[in-house]
Write a structure and sequence with these properties.
With 934 residues, this protein is mostly helical.
Length: 934
């Protein structure tokens, strides 16, 4: 007896999950993530959700990611927007939505004219993201559904992260995904934390239990109940996966409840699908087999051509396949309801049948416009046409790079290089391309293992091996465990690149960079001299500017004042894209160098020019380093308002890239020290390079040691503070670049002085003084003044004033406040009555920055002075809003801190903290700490 139903008419075992989705979706703005393995019922749950009456006020937009997709950034989200044209005439649109016109030609007549293309590439992508957000806001209330996010392109993930991080108030974003197939187990490519004010739900769908399998089977078979033994065996054989349960029940032909106990579930599933296919007419089966081979939803015409079904019989054949439940319709295209079903039908084909069908698919798609290179490559490979697989696969990878999808390009190059039949010329060409992706990309899968394996491939020529090794070196110096090994790789590549002196000199230029690792400056200078001699005789603009991009920044970051006179060697722009890439890198590298030594205005100017040059140049890594430089500049200049959030988002995006992530971790660690968030400070500063100085970005690591020294000094552990200072100064002395001690030197002198190690403090000041002779390093010169002031006699207060003026001239708001605190303390020790007022003003300056720990320390010092605090008459009341002090307490409560720990951070008594905690809990409407942390 054929079961009267093929799916359950009711949702079984997912009532709680459905209720959670309804609550989250209707509480806009909101973000909903639905996770689960293949066949567990994610799509069914979403369909049930969309049928709920509570969702009628929402405009539902759906997009789906495909496993065999052509390179098309943001594809699933843009697909969801293609059908909204009919609604746009009724809404007012922001001008920025015009940038969507070229990507959504269906909407061109409804969108404003595109605004002028911005110079900054970050702004260009930001405009696109803003345009999508503005369009969704205009259409709201909207439910945006993106299914199978594990197959999404990186651009789509970035766009969804943007929408989820700052959604319009009338948007709900719901995504489904398989965690096991998502990059790193994270569907958005990095960890996601919903911002304040955004409702969220994570629904993890697991297999059904025995009772739920019983109910599902009874519902599908349209009976009141099934035998308990049958339900138990069914659960055992299907592992409780709803889709597999449905497929197995389809195979039951009569009321014999016995299952094929000796057969494993995958075989049973294949047999169930084979039996259903056998009941189809020959043409219907051919259509289904064609769909299985194509792998993506296809039109009736394409299915008929691949399945060798006459056009006049294709409609009837397709109808049979649909009515039998083998195929499923999606937007006038036809495919399988689930990847498991597609694989099951594919597995019923013999090897020759598969090969023949893939060959037909290849011929059918060969004349498509635009060319579906990805599908052509896959069908060529499966048809056994290796030359065509190579040709189409390489074209697909090249196309992926053109449209900004380096992850797909990297994956394809790696797969192509796995082919044993490649000729030496093919291996050379593909290996070099893969290395270039690794060198210039950001969001690609790590090809390091492939490049290392290729170096042992006997087919690789010596010249190509040198270039592959060179590109591997570029990859290694960007990874947390790579710079030390990278230097060895570069040195070996130089010998292999004898026939390519331009590339060999590129390796020397990297070895000349003094800011990597603990190699002494003298060795870097040797490489610099070789590079400079080559530049002077080089007539190739591209090669010359490629080398200058490294050389000028390398010289400048050591405080070499001669660089200023050579900056006119850099033109503002260039018509040639390759030259423009190097000019962009040169400007961004110089911006970073200027920031390190304290030329902050120059740093901002060169950074802005460098980022403008990256527009259309295809250098995302350069853009990433530019963003970390901007974050560091904002730290120095005291622009902390949104710095924590911006730096956190950047860290999520660039977590694996040492030059970017190390600098961002340093900034986040410094912010945490200023707030008294010791746990976060230690976590971030540990990743600033201090744990492995040989593999660090040296000035960033020195900044990490400085922050750790300040932190332990502030916590009263002078032994650990001095130990961190000792480790940092050991690195500094080994490296020999004193221009980078702008932060470490004052922190170390302060710790040594407090610990009674005056000789060490004096020695450091003498070394710094000598090391800065003839060095253009404004930040380090300010540090030298601060060090001398810290060691000054009580009758030399003007030294602190002089150091503060120097800090003010550089715009160092935080360090100016720190020095102002020292000036006020010195005045307090002299009995100056105005010192209390001065300390109060410094506390207010710290508050304005967000340095709550420093502000609390100043107020504590005022209280400890035994002098009456000036009246704060007129102070505002906060009502049910949290006061600044209560916000500090709430933040520490959210970290799980005890009252005593909060008291230590904020310099308060436990009793005062207890009162603050009570007010915080009352204002937040929670009954306990546990509820606050839930």
């Amino acid at each position: 007896m054929t079961p009267p139903r093929t799916t359950s008419p009711v949702l079984v075992g997912r009532g709680e999950e459905l209720a959670a989705l309804v609550d989250a979706v209707t509480s806009q703005p909101s973000v909903v993530l639905v996770a689960g393995e293949a066949g567990v019922g994610k799509s069914r749950l979403v369909r049930e959700l969309l049928a709920r009456p509570e969702l009628r006020p929402l405009r539902v937009l759906t997009g789906c990611c495909q496993p065999l997709r052509e390179p098309f950034p943001y594809g699933a989200v843009l697909d969801a927007l293609r059908t909204v044209g009919g609604y746009l005439s009724r809404v007012s649109l922001s001008p920025v939505t015009g940038v969507l016109g070229p990507l959504l030609p269906e909407l061109t007549g409804h969108l404003p004219q595109p605004p002028e293309r911005p110079d900054d590439p970050r702004h260009e992508r930001h405009h696109l993201f803003r345009a999508v957000r503005e369009l969704l806001a205009a259409l709201g209330p909207v439910l945006l559904v993106v299914e199978d996010l594990h197959w999404a392109d990186d651009g789509c993930r970035h766009l969804l992260r943007f929408l989820m991080a700052a959604p319009p108030p009338n948007l709900t974003t719901l995504v489904t995904y398989r965690r096991e197939d998502a990059p790193g187990g994270m569907p958005l490519g990095s960890a996601y934390r919903p911002p304040a004010g955004v409702a969220s739900a994570l629904v993890e769908l697991g297999p059904l239990d025995v009772g739920q399998v019983h109910d599902l089977a009874a519902a599908i078979l349209d009976v009141d109940a099934v035998p308990a033994e049958f339900a138990a065996r069914l659960h055992e054989r299907t592992a409780g996966i709803p889709f597999v349960v449905e497929e197995m029940l389809r195979a039951l032909r009569d009321p014999d409840w016995r299952l094929l106990d000796a057969v494993e579930v995958p075989a049973l599933l294949r047999d169930a699908m084979a039996e259903r296919l056998a009941r189809l007419p020959v043409t219907g089966r051919r259509i289904a087999e064609a769909a299985a081979v194509l792998g993506v939803p296809a039109t009736e015409q394409l299915l008929a051509e691949v399945g060798a079904v006459a056009p006049d019989r294709a409609g009837a054949a397709l109808t049979h396949a649909l009515h039998s439940g083998v195929l499923h319709e999606t937007d006038v295209r036809y495919g399988f309801r689930h990847a498991l079903a597609q694989q099951a039908v594919y597995d019923t084909l013999t090897g020759p049948e598969r090969q023949r069908l893939h060959l037909r698919a290849l011929r059918a798609l060969d004349h498509a416009t635009p060319r579906p290179f990805m599908q052509l490559a896959e069908h060529s490979r499966r048809a056994g046409l290796l030359p065509d697989w190579l040709r189409h696969g390489e074209a697909a990878a090249d196309r992926a790079l053109e449209v900004g999808d380096p992850a797909t390009a990297t994956h394809l190059y790696q797969r192509l290089l796995d082919e044993a039949s490649l000729t030496p010329a093919d291996v050379d060409r593909l290996a070099v391309k893969l290395g270039q992706v690794a060198r210039g990309g950001l969001d690609q899968r790590d090809p390091r293992a492939t490049l290392e394996r290729l170096l042992d491939d006997h087919r690789l020529s010596t010249a190509a091996r040198g270039e592959v090794r060179l590109n591997l070196g570029f990859l290694l110096i960007r990874q947390f465990d790579g710079p030390k090994h990278g230097r060895v790789v570069f040195e070996r590549a130089i010998g292999e690149l004898a026939a390519r002196p331009d590339l060999a000199m590129g390796a020397r230029a990297v070895l000349a960079q003094p800011f990597v690792g603990a190699t002494p400056l003298a060795e870097h200078l040797r490489w610099m001299r070789e590079v400079e001699a080559f530049i002077d005789s080089c007539e190739d603009d591209e090669v010359r500017f490629a080398l200058l991009a490294n050389q000028l920044g390398s010289r400048m970051c050591t405080g070499d004042h001669t660089v200023m006179s050579r900056l006119d060697r850099l033109p503002d722009t260039a018509a040639d894209v390759a030259v423009r890439r190097h000019l962009a890198r040169a400007h961004c590298n110089l911006a970073d160098a200027f920031a390190l030594i304290g030329h902050f205005d120059l740093a901002r100017d060169f950074l802005d020019r460098g980022l403008r040059l990256t527009v259309g140049a295809g250098v995302p890594f350069t853009e990433g380093t530019g963003q970390s430089t901007r974050v560091h500049l904002d730290w120095y200049r005291g622009d902390w308002g949104t710095l924590q959030d911006r730096a956190t988002r950047l860290l999520e995006e660039y977590r694996e890239l040492l030059p970017v992530a190390g600098e961002i971790n340093l900034v986040l660690g410094c912010l945490a020290v200023a707030r008294g968030d010791w746990e976060a400070a230690e976590r971030h500063l540990a990743d600033s390079g201090v744990r492995s100085v040989e593999n660090s970005i040296t000035p960033v690591a020195l900044g990490g040691f400085a922050a750790l020294t300040r932190m332990w000094s502030d916590r009263g552990d002078l032994a650990r503070a001095c130990a961190e200072a000792d480790r940092g100064l050991e690195l500094a002395r080994r490296k020999g670049v004193w221009a980078w001690l702008g932060e470490l030197a004052p922190a170390a002198v302060d710790a040594y002085r407090a610990a009674g190690r005056l000789e060490d403090a004096v020695k450091l000041v003498e070394e710094l003084d000598a090391g800065l002779v003839d060095r253009d390093a404004p930040l380090a010169h300010v540090a030298l003044k601060a060090c001398r002031a810290l060691l000054a006699r009580p009758d030399e207060p003007w030294l602190l004033e002089d150091a503060r003026r120097a800090a003010d001239e550089l715009g160092l708001r935080y360090y100016s406040a720190v020095l102002s605190e020292r000036i006020a303390l010195a005045a307090l020790e002299r009995g100056d009555d105005d010192a209390v007022v001065a300390l109060g003003e410094v506390a207010a300056r710290f508050d304005s920055l967000g340095a709550s720990r420093d502000a609390a320390r100043c107020r504590h010092l005022v209280r400890g002075a035994g002098v009456a605090t000036p009246s704060r008459r007129g102070r505002r009341g906060y009502g049910n809003a949290l006061s600044p002090r209560e916000q500090d307490v709430a933040r520490l409560l959210a970290q799980g801190r005890t009252n005593r720990e909060i008291a230590d951070v904020l310099f308060l008594s436990p009793r005062t903290v207890e009162q603050h905690v009570a007010r915080v809990l009352r204002k937040l409407g929670v009954a306990s700490r546990a509820e606050l942390l839930a």
